[in-house]
Amino acid sequence: MESTDLFRAARRALRGAPWGASIVTVADEPSGTGPVMTSTAHELPEQGHVELGSVSKAVTGLLLHDAVDRGVLSTGDRLADHLPLDGCAAGEVTLASLAVHASGLPRLPRVEDVLGRTWRMLRRGENPYGDSVEELLEQTRRTAVGRPRPAYSNLGFELLGHAVAAAQGTTYAALVRDRMADPLGLGSWHVPADLAEVRPGAIAGRSRRGRPHEPWTGEGLGPAGGLRSTLGDAARWVTALLEGRVPGAGALDPVARLSGPVRIGAGWMVTPVPDGEITWHNGMTGGHAAFVGLDRRRRSGVVVVRAVARPVDAVGMRLLRDLGRRAAGD
Predict the structure, then answer these.
(1) Each residue of 159-203: pLDDT tens digit?
(2) Any idea where the Beta-lactamase-related domain is (predicted)?
(3) Position 91 in a domain
(4) Which end of the chain is more exposed for a tag (fewer CB within 10 A), N or C?
(5) CATH number of residue 41's parent domain
(6) pTM of the entire structure?
(7) What does the pLDDT read at residue 1?
(8) Distance (Å, rounded) from C-alpha 254 to C-alpha 169?
(9) Residue 141 above 50 pLDDT?
(10) Which residues are 214's β-sheet partners?
């Protein structure tokens, strides 16, 4: 099956908005990693960068494990060990529970004017996430913590990423740059705190109904949904993941059950498929969608992005399935 055949269904499914898809396959050789084959199809401006949304959580999981591997912190640490959250329930939550969405924290913190933010996002396409880390921490102090159980939490990953950064005396954006982007040559990666920090080349996104949408920026948001990347750099990151060159790769290994058959590592979801399993994360912002998936056994991966808030998971999973069939000679 040629790469053009693999992309045919993706083109049909993604048309109508700027989109891109990359397939990466790393060949095995007796001496170790063999040649890397990358195929890409897209309708994106050259060097245009998109919002990866919650794929940022997968990066945060890697940064957590990287810090643990270097002895900077332990997954048994509490949030209050690294952030000024003493005296509130969230401060007692462990980093391990945050990494698998089982901390008891709600999806979002208790925020003033939440209805107003939501209305402005839906009606005007405004960014609902502009909070600083200090504002996020103040919201967290007002937020109740429920019974620890599997429940997806944006708040949990925001706090996790900022705790990992604080333990190293830096900011989350700088940590991404220093431990991930620069070592791997991902020059487009950045985590803007506000519109002024969004670099030239940003691809404008649209809501599900086609309404223009502001970029989602915010210092507080960063570890859970603030990362931006070109398609090419996202594919280079997938290559590094498949080759084992990414710091904190233990984050990919599942350690708990999230929902049904889906297990979770540090942020990374693992879903069984008939001939193996897929390790993945998706992302959705007000104007963008993204999917990153790995078939680690076959050493193949995909990236799918689209500048409209419509899920692209099915496209990514189909590409991985078709890659598997090609590898099996079906």
Answers:
(1) 999 999 999 999 999 999 999 999 999 999 999 999 999 999 999
(2) 49-306
(3) no
(4) C
(5) 3.40.710.10
(6) 0.95
(7) 44
(8) 29
(9) yes
(10) none
DSSP E strands: which ranges in 120-237? Answer: 205-206, 212-213, 228-230
Q: How many domains does the chain have?
A: 1
For residue 139, being part of any structural domain is answered with no
Q: Is residue 174 part of a domain?
A: yes
Assign 43 to helix, strand or coil. Answer: coil
Residue 275 is which amino acid? D
Mean pLDDT across 28-55: 84
Give the pLDDT mean for 302-314.
97
CB half-sphere exposure, 289, CA atoms < 13 A = 19
**Which DSSP helix (H) or strand (E) runs through 36?**
strand 32-42
- Phi, psi dihedral angles at 269 (to 5 degrees): -85, 145
Which segments of 102-171 does DSSP mark as H helices, in order? 114-124, 133-141, 154-166
Q: Residue 250 — pLDDT band, cuts 50, 70, 90?
A: very high
pLDDT score, position 329 = 63
Q: Is residue 94 part of a domain?
A: no
Exposed, middle or buried by CB within 10 Å (0-12, 13-18, 19+), for 80?
middle
Q: Check whether 118 has a pLDDT greater than 90.
A: no
What's residue 323's pLDDT? 87
Domain span holding position 198 = 3-72+166-328
Identity at 328, one-letter amino acid code: A
Secondary structure of residue 225 in the 3-state scheme? helix
CA distances to 69, 80, 84 from 93, in Å = 21, 8, 13
Nearest CA-CA partner of 64 in 51, 49, 42, 79: 79
Q: What single-letter amino acid sits at 66?
A: D
pLDDT of residue 190: 98
What stretches of 277-329 show up as alpha helix (H) in DSSP?
A: 313-328
Structure token pair of residue 182: 């620069």
d(CA 200, CA 197): 9
Helix (H, G, I), strand (E, B) or coil at 18: coil
Instruction: Give the bridge partners for 232, in sequence order.
Output: none
